[in-house]
Design a protein that fits this description.
globular, 48 strands, five-stranded mixed sheet, mainly beta
Amino acid sequence: MKIGILFISFFIQITAAPRPYFLLIFPKVIPADGATKTCIHLSYLNESLSLTLTLQTKKNTIKLLQEFVVDTDWHRCISLQDTIQNIDIAEEANLNLTGGSDSYRFEKIKKIYLEKKKKNGTFIQTDKPVYKPGQTVKFRTVTLNEHFIPDLSQIPLVIIQDPQKNRISQWLNVTTQHGIGDFSFPLANEPLQGEYTIQIHKAGSLTYHSFTVEEYVLPKHEVQLKLPRAISVMDKEFTVTMCARYTYGKPVLGTAVFRICRKSQYFWQKVNSHEMTNDYCKEFNGTTDISGCVSKVIYTNYFHLRTPVFTMEFIVEAKLIEKDTDQELTASGKISISTQISKVTFEDVQDNYKTGIPFTGKVCVEGADGSPLSGVNVIIQSRQDLSEILSTNERGQAYFSLNTSAWNNQVISLSAYQEGVPRNRQTLFGKIEPYSEAASLTVSPQFSKSKSFLRIQSSMTSIVQCDKDFEIHVDYIFNRKALEGSPGNMVFLYLVMEGRRIVLDGQKQSNIGPSGSLKGTLSITVSLGADAAPKAKVLVYVILPNGELIADNREFTVSKCFRNKVKLQFMEPEVSPATETSLHLNAAAGSLCALRVVDKSVLLLKPEQELSIDKVYSTAKQEVADVYALQKEPPICRPPNPQAVANRTYTQIPPSVSNEMDVYRIIWDMGLDVSTDTSMRKPIFCSLKFTDTVSEMYDIPYMWNSHAFPEAAAVRVMKQQANADRLIGLRHQTG
């Protein structure tokens, strides 16, 4: 009996665990009040680590963080508000991050910029815009910072000047009530009439507000003439509407007369044309309805819209004769006549694309008056041989999704235009031809050495509602090789910025690894409040096991709101004259509220001076620092291949600042900077200067990580170097 022995061997492939990485991310310009954050992330730690972050100025060294980290993935954002307020503000400072364990150590110092002073916005509000001689001017002022928090300090100087710039009143070192300054000033019985100016001097800035003093009669009526902003030369008709109401809301009944004219640009003799007289005018009559409005449809064939000898606008004059009193109310306006019948624009698009992830966005089509055009066919062309036809919806929008797989890392030019309409302005045979304005867009490929990408989707709504939950959808595509050694959970981190400030941060884990899905969509839920309005910039980033940092950013418009809510309403919608009424005010406990009650008729005299949420935002919220005025760090150039420069004398030229579409630029464009040992920059060509015996120099470009470039680029480098070798050899022979 023979006994066989069977040997079975097992081959187990053991993938090495990824090495640790660190990432420090921070605003390049720190606000003077320090109301922002700096964030640290450690990935793939295999042992405990001691971590320290300090802020260093010429006079101060402040420890921001000292932590003993034991987690494999660790993330922390540190507020700088208390720190910045307790140091002498300097123009520059350094962030110093050090970490160390038995096998992993790092130390990085990065320069940051500190604003020298806080920026506030001052508001001045008078109780009404126009005063009669002898009346008392009442006004309030408040200074707010970017968080809409009032400045409680004294007001150094308040001045009132008359129309001749004479100082007629002033207040010094005024103490405010919880930030609100309250003032009154009696006018003389015979003052100079005209525009007066209030000046507030505070926090090194000067704020103006004007009011008018004149003998006036309060208007009894409010008249509105509603006209289209513009019409195109192809429009067959348009509508004009006139509405009139008494200031207490009751509609005015009567008869309206419209006069609509198109003026001639030249004096045309009748012999030239029996139709082309000096002006083209028509009158229309109508009676107001129960709402106090009258509308007329105007047909355009009479006005020769495509004849260039007339001005490209309508002048509209309207007159309403009140029933019973025969009092006349007037209004006037203009309507532009445009040869551009439509305009096509790209919206919700980025200036880069990620190979393997569809490039999405929408095209919008609007008419000459700015209104959306539905049912319009739009052609989107990405290359000469590739186009797509879309039809706009009721909002004048058409969504598109383009496959990027065949774009081959090339710069792509996109165009969108209305089908069947010329795209250039022209005049043929004395007549104006209509045209449509096309849209164009150039997108560049985003660089990733592993071809792994993130893409934040655009919002389905044009405006994100403040203080409401909002879902951010992130598309991802990973290279399987880049995930080798992954523990199975991928950590997605996100930051939300408004202006120069990081206002929100967080992370979300997803089960993505070598055995999981390499392509999909992740959802992150955030609530964007007043501190993120009106423009929230979102950054989502991931550190891959191979040490590559991938990221994407996108800006969202957030509806304007305030952290403290207030409601004000009359208890009765309508009361009789000379009777009492009540106001109901609802606000958070402890709120200081300033009220103003004034006849609506007064506000009709100068409605543009009314305080609004838009005015508060534009004054209190500051401009974003221009990060492009700051110096980017140039990429690191590695030494050349020793064989390529053997027996050669050369000088390495410092590389210039790169503006390539890589993760470093994505982060920089948000006003952020990073300190990290991850890979995030696109390799660039650098230069060597080779010197021969007669000191002539030749620029020989070379690159590192040449595998990241097309083969043709590497061949070009070799050819250029060979040419330089040949030239140097010839020089030696002739010498």
